Amino acid sequence: MNTRPHSLVILVAGPYRSGTGDDPRKLEANVRAMNETALALFRAGHLGVTGEALALPLLEAAGSTGPGDAAYEEIFHPVAEQLLSRCDAVLRIGGPSEGADLMVARARAWGKAVYTGLDDIPAAR
Fold first, then answer.
1. 75-115: pLDDT as tens digits
2. 46 with 8: CB under 8 angstroms?
């Protein structure tokens, strides 16, 4: 019988634009916080992923001029939703965020686990 916990793919959902006024330094700090959380998940034996990691390069390739433009609306949240459909769970971090809250609501509707802290996630290693 295998009782070893298994590795999960976990979407890290946190604020990207919320509270930033679209200041590039603040946007970058929000991405960094999500990436640091994804790293902690990796070190715990899971695969932490962010929608930003996939969406931001696509936005650049699409010629986006900044958050909220037509390319952003076309790509940003739809990428996160597609990514979430392939994840086992969501880890909600940070402060207020309509987008992150949407990912949590979608995860719950799809029967996926929702975590609010790293300590809540079962270890895989």
1. 999 999 999 999 999 999 999 999 999 999 999 999 999 99
2. yes
Residue 50 neighbours by CB under 8 Å, 6+ apart:
11, 12, 31, 34, 35, 38
Residue 48's φ and ψ, nearest 5 degrees, are: -90, 135
User: Could you tell me if 38 and 88 are in contact, meaning their C-beta atoms sit under 8 angstroms apart?
Assistant: no
User: pTM of this prediction?
Assistant: 0.92
List C-alpha distances in Å: 46 to 7, 20, 32, 86.
5, 29, 18, 14
| Sign of CA pseudo-dihedral 53, 54, 55, 56 | positive
CA-based R_g, the chain, Å: 15
Q: Determine the angle formed by the axes of helices 51-61 and 24-43, rounding to 10 degrees.
A: 140
DSSP label at 112? -
Find the angle CA(34)-CA(36)-CA(39) to the nearest 5 degrees: 110
DSSP 6: P
